Amino acid sequence: MIRPVFEPESLPIESTGASLPVVAAERLTPEGLRARFTQRLPWDPEPQESRLTTDMRDPRNAAVLMPLAMRESGLTVLLTQRADNLSNHAGQVSFPGGSVEPVDPTPIAAALREAHEEVNLDPARVEVLGALPDYLTGTGFRVTPVVGLVHEPFSLAADALEVADIFEVPLSFLMNPAHHQVRLLRWEGGERRFFAMPYSGSGASGVAASHFIWGATAGMLRNFYRFLLA
After folding, report:
1. Contact yes or no for 137/100 (Cβ under 8 A)
2. I want to staple 90 with a disulfide (CB 3.0 to 4.6 A). Which of 15, 52, 86, 95 is the partner?
3. Are 118 and 96 in contact (CB under 8 A)?
């Protein structure tokens, strides 16, 4: 399958979620998240494009860790900027993660292993809360997003072969639907839409930088928003 080559930042914004309800502040705390994952409230993931749910053949199983760092100022989401030399999603913002390997007994184990390999996050510092529904990517992966609280103290170090930068975004920013954009791509007579959540902040070096969170990462964050809103 030929994939379109485009600059996602340059595509038009079709809509935002400014009119949608916000997640209650108490849900964005460790206690609120623990309580939410013990509940069985009905909710629906964001609908994905029909081409992903009907046309994909034998997707590869993968898992990512959605690490929520427990900072004094509130929870933050640990994200990475992928290295430019990678064969999949090069240069994009992503969660630590990768393919589920034969050595991994569960997707949770795979997510923790990959996070340790990519950013040196000690699995012992991660309190796994649960997992969100699998997410299909246009590059042929079925991804299990594993949500976990990261307890201090912890240290991070990027694997230079896979990760160009590590940065944090306040969970409250990413769970505010006003920051959720829908971008539109027109290609080969058709239309494709994806979520984007641009953010300006600091990387691991402390230097201010802008990060364009989009695609599968933004899609999984959007599902997390819908999960917490239920």
Report:
1. no
2. 86
3. yes
d(CA 196, CA 219): 8
Q: What is the pLDDT of residues 62-103, one digit of tens each?
A: 999 999 999 999 999 999 998 766 555 556 899 999 999 999
Q: pTM, whole model, 2 decimals?
A: 0.91
Residue spans per domain, the chain: 12-37+59-229
- DSSP assignment, residue 49? P
The contacts of residue 141 (CB under 8 Å, 6+ apart) are 59, 60, 61, 62, 88, 99
Q: What is the 3-state secondary structure (H, E, C) of 179-207?
A: HCEEEEEEECCEEEEEEEEEEEEEECCCC
pLDDT recorded at residue 173:
96
Q: Which fold has domain 12-37+59-229?
A: Nucleoside Triphosphate Pyrophosphohydrolase (3.90.79)
